[in-house]
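Researcher: I'm comparing several assemblies side by side, and this is the next one on my list. It has 263 residues spread over two chains. Same procedure as the others: predict the full complex and return the structure.
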Amino acid sequence: MTPLHSYLLVSALLFAIGLGGALTRRNAIIVLIGIELMLNAANLNFIAFWRFGPHPEALTGILFVLFSIGVAAAEAAVGLALIIAAYRRCKTAEVDEIDSMKG
Amino acid sequence: MITLLGIVTLAGAIAAMALRNLVHCALALVVAFGGLAALYLQLGAQFVGFAQALVYIGAVAILIVFAILLTRGSEGPQRRVFSASWAVGAGVALAVFGVLWGILLSSRALPAGMPPEPVATARGIGDQLMTKYILPLEVLGLLLTAALIGAVIIAIKDEG
């Protein structure tokens, strides 16, 4: 197992944990935390491939991660605002109780 | 070192996904983000490591704590914390991990060994951001402004 493999294993496990949490938890905030973990797993992949790739002097991986962190911050702000708005309307933050559009 | 940091990161992530109290989840999330920042530092990406600490530990975690506060999640769950179809979700997550791990093990394109540490100074990153990546940087600034204004408008109290 090469060093790159261990970083990719951590990243894959982090992605699976985030996905599992986002799919199984009831609270909307924890679902958002799971999505953040998945985004972070992708960022770790970018940095690992930048470090072990053939052209690290181009800094492509680092710059992609910086932009990705910025977009993730915007996503977190909008997501949490949506959760607060939904909580105010439905008086709950549990995703399976917000079912007023259920047929 | 990577083993230790990986274990800390993954333990934080598992705790953030499995604990019952939402405030404990947010604290475990901070541990996971801190472990990731340390992994970036260890990979030689100092600037990204500190940006991760500033943005995620400093801003996103605080934002999540505020959201927990505003939705009264800190009172603790009344009933179960996992959804009724949790087995399906766990199965999907396991399947995704299995596919990723199988591809990783069977791939022959991955370079082996440790190349010499590349130089990624803040100066070099700033140079690139101000020359080659100036347009994405401006677009990101516009996106952040629009997203934050939108977030305020969404969360603003309307009694109409």
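Model: For your comparison table: The domain at 3-90 of chain A is CATH 1.10.287.3510 (Helix Hairpins).
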